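User: Hey, quick favor. My workstation is busy. Could you predict this chain's structure for me?
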Amino acid sequence: MNTQDHPALKLFAELLAYPSPSSMEHRLAAHLLARLRSWGYAPQQDGVGNVWVRLTGRNPGAPLVCYAAHMDEIGLAVHAIEPDGRLRVSRSGGLFPWKLGEAPVEILGDRATITGVLAMGAGHGAGEQAITWADVSVLTGLTLAQLAEAGVRPGSLGVPLRAHCGPVLFGDPADPLVAAWTFDDRMGVVTLLRLLERLATDHLQPACPTLVAFTVQEEVGGMGAKVLALRERPEVFIAIDGCPIPPGAPLQLDGRPGIWTRDRRAPYDPRLIVDLCAAASAAGTELQPVAYDVSASDASMVFEVGGAARIACFGQVRANSHGYEVARLAVFDNMLRTLLHFVREWGK
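Assistant: No problem, here it is.
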C-alpha cells in the first residue's frame, strides 16, 4: 500500500499542501469551500475565517449539534530580523524547537513564501543542552531588501517545508503505522470531509440539526470555535481531534480511537462519552478513554466561555504529539464509522 491507496491519506496529503498556521488558514479554507461546493453543499464562512455546513435533521426538535475540526497548525513566528537576513523566531501554538530540529521551513510573507533553514548553532563542542527558542534562528540567505520585497516582517508565520511533512507508511504491511507533520488537526478535517462526502453520496441525513465546522486558531486559544459557538449556540459541541499519549496515559497505538474525559479547561459530558462509546461499539470498534491535565480542545474552550452546554472530543490516538506524529492507519476508518453512526442515530 502507498499513501494514495487509502482515502484518508490521499485527502490528508491534498490538504497538507496548504500551509495553515494560526490566523493564516485562508488557503486551506478556500480549498475546503471549493470541495464542499463540488458535493452540492452551500458552505458559509464568517469574518474570522471559520467554514461550516448547516444540515437539517430528521428530528427538527432535537438539539443543535456542532461537529468541529480545526484548520490551523502549530508553527513559528518571526519576532525580529537581523542585519544579515537571519530571522529570530518563537513559537506559534504549542511548538517546541527540538520537535523541528535543524530542518527547512517555509516563511509565509505578505507577498511571497520564502524557504529557510532552522539553525541552532554548531554541534562541535556544544555538549548536551536543552534547546529553547532563544537558541534558534532561521537562515534565509536573503538581504533585508529581499525579505521586505517578499513581505517578511515581525509577525510573519512559518511552518515546516511541505515536502518534508509526509505522510509516511511503515511497519507491518497488514496493519501499518503512518506518520506525518502533523495530524493535528488536518486528520480531524479529513474525517469531517469524509463524513460529508458519505452523507452527500448516499443521500443520508443526520438525526439532529447539525453544523459541521472547520474552525480557525484553535492552537492559540480556540478563537474561531468560540466565535462560532457564541453566535450559533449549539447545545452540543463535539471536537474531532487527536488524543496525545503523555507519560502514564492508558492509550494504545492501535486501531481504536481515543475519547477525552477531561482536560485542563473542563470535564467532558459523561452521557455523551457513554453514547459515543456505544456508537463506536455499534460501528465495530471501541473508544479508549483518557483524562488530561495539560491539553485542551475546541470543545473545552467553547464550554469554558459558555458556548455550549454539553461537549465531547474524540479522534485518533497519536504518538509524538505536536511533532512528526504517528498513528495506526486503521484508526482513521474507525473514527469515520463511529462518527457516521453517531450522527445518524443520536437524538433521533
